[in-house]
Amino acid sequence: MRQSQLLLPTLREAPSEAEAVSHQLMLRAGLIRQLAAGIYTYLPLGRRVLRRLETIIREEMDKTGAQEIWMPAMQPADLWRQSGRYERYGPELVRLRDRHDREFALGPTHEEVITDLMRGEINSYRQLPSTLYQIQTKFRDEKRPRYGLLRGREFLMKDAYSFDESWEGLNTSYDKMYEAYHRIFSRCGLRFRPVEADAGTIGGEGGTHEFMALADIGEDTIAACTHCQYAANLEKASYRFVELPLQNETSDIAELEKIYTPNARKIEELVQSLNIPSDHILKTLLFQADGKPVAVVVRGDHEVNEIKLAGLLKASELELVDQATAEQLTGAKLGFAGPIGLSIPVIVDYAAAQVQSGLAGANETDFHWKNVRVGIHFQIALLGDIRNAVPGDGCPNCTEGQLQMYRGIEVGQVFKLGTKYSEAMNASFLDAEGVDKPIIMGCYGIGISRVMSAVVEQHYDEQGIRWPLELAPYQVHIVPVSAKDETQMKAAAELYGSLIAAGIEVLLDDRDERAGVKFKDSDLIGIPVRIVVGRQAAEGVLELKYRHEKEAQQLSSEEVLAAITNFYRSK
Amino acid sequence: MRQSQLLLPTLREAPSEAEAVSHQLMLRAGLIRQLAAGIYTYLPLGRRVLRRLETIIREEMDKTGAQEIWMPAMQPADLWRQSGRYERYGPELVRLRDRHDREFALGPTHEEVITDLMRGEINSYRQLPSTLYQIQTKFRDEKRPRYGLLRGREFLMKDAYSFDESWEGLNTSYDKMYEAYHRIFSRCGLRFRPVEADAGTIGGEGGTHEFMALADIGEDTIAACTHCQYAANLEKASYRFVELPLQNETSDIAELEKIYTPNARKIEELVQSLNIPSDHILKTLLFQADGKPVAVVVRGDHEVNEIKLAGLLKASELELVDQATAEQLTGAKLGFAGPIGLSIPVIVDYAAAQVQSGLAGANETDFHWKNVRVGIHFQIALLGDIRNAVPGDGCPNCTEGQLQMYRGIEVGQVFKLGTKYSEAMNASFLDAEGVDKPIIMGCYGIGISRVMSAVVEQHYDEQGIRWPLELAPYQVHIVPVSAKDETQMKAAAELYGSLIAAGIEVLLDDRDERAGVKFKDSDLIGIPVRIVVGRQAAEGVLELKYRHEKEAQQLSSEEVLAAITNFYRSK
What we know:
Chain A is an alpha+beta fold.
C-alpha cells in the first residue's frame, strides 16, 4: 500500500479525554475514531489489526474442532425471558421494539440464541459433543464507557458454546478451549495469566477462568502466587491460613471501655485520632442477605468479600443496608456501628476473630468501644473467610508462596455453564439408554477489540506502538528520506515490488513530507521493520531498523530482503 | 471435516412458510435457521458460503484500491437529523434509546457515519480521491420480511463510499466499482444484468445502476433489449417512439356519445362488457402533485410511471388522491373519472394521445363517453412519456431491438451521490486554488446474504443446490457407501488425507447412515464434486461425479486426485 493513498490520519497529540495509553495511541496512530461514547469506527490500519486477530482466533478455534456459525444481533426478548435474564440483565442490555412493537434485545452474549438453536437441532447423544463459535458484534450499554476499546458499548467478540452429554465431556471441551486461549493470547504477544474467577451474570455451576492481560490500567485485581501457578481474581482469591484457637475468658486483657470519638467514622480517622494500627480495629458493616439484616465484622485493614460472604450465608442476594436502616438497627449515626449489643446475627471473619483487644463502634453516635474481645463481648453467629486476600497472604495452592496483587484487563473467559440454560430453556437429548437429559454446556468468550487495546497497553514506548509480529497492520514500512529524490524513490519502489513479490505486506511512505514527520509517523504506527531509503541508496545501501531495537543496520538491498524474510520466517 | 461432527441438520421437507426455492433449499440443506421474522442464524455450511462471498468481495474491492474500514451499527440519531433522513426514512429505520435516553438508529446504511468521519479527516484535495468499504451487519425493519435471506431485517452487506474532488473523479471511482461488481457477480456464478435505476431513498444527483440477478422470484421488473446491452428497471425504463401528429378537427370519426356502463369501473370490466380492446380505453387517474390535483391519462393497457410523471411535472411529491377527493373533483363515484369537463390540468401520455376514438369515464357515476378525441374533446395541459415500458416497445438505445421484461433480484447498487450528503453535513475540502468545495461522493452496496439466496435461486435442480465452484462450502464430498465396511472407510480416509494435503477442502461423510440417505444429503447440499467409495474400492476403483453432470466416472484413486486438482485449477 502506498501511504499517500491510505486513510491514516496520525495526530501529534491525543485528545485530552483519552486517559488510557492504548486509547491515546490508537487515536494518534489513526487506528480508530470515536462516533459516540464507547462506539468506534476502525480506520484502515485498525481494521487490518482486527482482521489479524480474527485470523488467529479462527485458526485456533478451528484446530479444536469448533465450527463457525453466525448468530443475529437482534434477539427476541421472549428468549431472554425464558432464561430469566431479560429483567435481571439490567440497563446494560440494549432494548428496542420493532415496527410491530415486539421487544428485542441487542445481544451482549448469545447463550439464549444458541440454546434455542440447539434444542431444535440436538436430540440424541450421537450428535454430541459439539462446539460452535462465532465472531460477531456485541452490544452492552455500559454506564461509563471509557478507555477507548477497553470498555466500549459496541465491540467485536468471539464467543463459543460447547454441548456435551456429561460433566466429563464438558471438562474435555473446556480444557480444549482453555488451551486454545493460551495459544491465541500467546500469538498476540500478550503477557497474561488465566485466573480463577466468579461466574457473575452469565452464571453456571461449574468453574470459570478469566484470561487477564497484565496492565496497570486494568480494572481487575489479580492475586497471584510468587512461587506456584496459582492466580485468581481478587473477588475469588483464597489464601492459606492456620486456624488459631479463639480467645477465652481467662485472657489477661484490660476491661471494655467506652471512648469519645467525635466525628471519627472511618478507619483512617480512627487510626489518626487514636494512634492505633488499623489491624486492631474491628470494622462492622451491615448487609441485607436475602432481605434479612446481618452485621459483618472484618479487621480494619481488610475488605469484605461479598462473594465469600454470600457463600458463607448461602444467600443469593446481598447488599449494604441504606443509611436509614443502618441507623435504625444500631441506634447511632453511620460510622459508629459495632458488634456489641446488636439484635441481629454477627458474622465474623477469621482474621477479625484473632484480634486480641479491638476497637469497635459502640452503636452510639460519636462513641467507640475499646478492648473489645470477639466471642466474649459479643456472640459470633458465623465464623469464616469473608475477606479479600491481601498482599503477603500465603498462597492457598502451595506451602511456600505468598500472594502478590496485579492489575489485569479481562481479555477472555471460559465458563462451565452446566445445565443453567439447558434446564431453563428445555434443551435436552436422549442418552444411550434413551433417557432424556439436559445438555451440559460451556461458554467461552474473547473480547477481540479489547485484546487490541490490551496489546497496545503492553507494547509501546515513548515514540508509539510496537506491534507484535502477528498483529502488525503491515510487516514492513519503507520510508524514503526525500520524495523529491528520484534515486531514492526508484530504489524504494523496487524494494516495495520485491517484498510484495516475496509475499510480505508492505507500506510505502511515498508522501512528500519532511523526513522527520515520516519517521515520527513510522514510530507511532509501529510496524515491526522499517527500511529507510536515504542518500546511500545511490550506492545500493539501505538502512534496516527493527521497531524494538535502538540501532539501525546498513545493508544492501539483497541483504535487506534476506533479513526480512528470515525475520518473519523464524517467528 | 468429518460429517459426523458437523452441525448439518438436513431436512426432507421444507417448512411450509418457505415460499422461495432458495429459502426452502437453504433451510433443507442446513445452511440457515430462522430466529425471528427476517432474522437468521447461519449454521456452519451457511457461514462457510458467506465467508467465501466475503473473500471474493474483499479481493475485488482491494484490487480497486478501496480500503477496508469498519463502522458501528449504533449511530447517533443526531447525525441522521443532519442529513435530514431521521424522519424521512420511516419505520424501516430501527430506532432505540440508550440508558441515558439518547436516540440511536441501527444503521441500514452508513452515509451519515462516513460523511461525519470524512468531514473530520479530509481537508485538502491532496487527500482525494479515496474509497472506503466495509463488510458489516445492517438492520432494516422491513414491513414484510420474506423469502428467507432475500428480504431480511438483519443482513450482511458490503458498502463502499468514494470521495472525489470533481464529477470526473466520481465517474472514474464509479466505473472502477461498476467493473469490480461485474467481476464479483461473475465469480459468484450469477446471471445478472446491470440496469439503470432510480435513486430512491438514498438520493443523489448522479446516475445509478442496480445489479440484478435474473430470477422469477425477483421483486423487480427489468426491461432489457433483445438486441443491445440496454437494460433498466421498469420504473426507469425508457422506450423508442416516433412522435406522431396529434389528431385534428377534420378526422372522420363518429360523434361523442355517452353510454350507460353500470358498475364497470375497471379496465377489464369495460373490455368484457363492451367488447372493446383495452388499448382503445383512455384510463384517467387523479394525483396530488406537490399538493395540487392533476388528471393523468394513459392508454387502458398501460401503467402510469410515477417517476416519469413526477419528472414531467417537476413535482417532488406525488400520490394518488383519496376516494373523497376523487369524488369531489369528478362529481362521480370512483371508477368513472374522465378527462372531459374537469377543472384541473389533464396530463396525457404520448400513446394515449394517439388513440383515435377512445372510451373514457364521463365524470358521472355509471357512465362513460364513447368516441373521445384527445386534444379536441378536452385540452392537453402537458404531453409526455409517463407510462411504463411494455414488452415489444422499441429499445431506446438501438434502432433494432425490442424490450423484453425479466424479473430480477437486486444484489448490488452503485450510486453517484454527488454532494447530497457532503452539503447537508458540511464535508468540504480545499481545492488546488484554496477554494472550499463540497466533496463529491459515490456509494456502492452489495447485499451479501441476498447474493447467497440469489445464487441458490439460479443454481439448483430437483435434488438440491448446485453450488458454483467459488462459493461451495466444501470443494469435494467423499461418500463411502457403507460405514461398516472397513476397506471402504480406509480408502475414504486415505483419499481424505491426500486431498487435504493437496489443499482441497473436503467433507467426509463418515456417518453410519444408509447409502440412500447419504446420497440424498450429498445432492441436497450440492458440493460440486462427489467421490463415492463403494465395493470396487477393494480394487482401487472410485466413482467421481460432478454435481452438474448426470453420469459418474469410474477412476483409480490417483486419477481421482488428478481430476479434482485439475477441475479446480482450470476454473
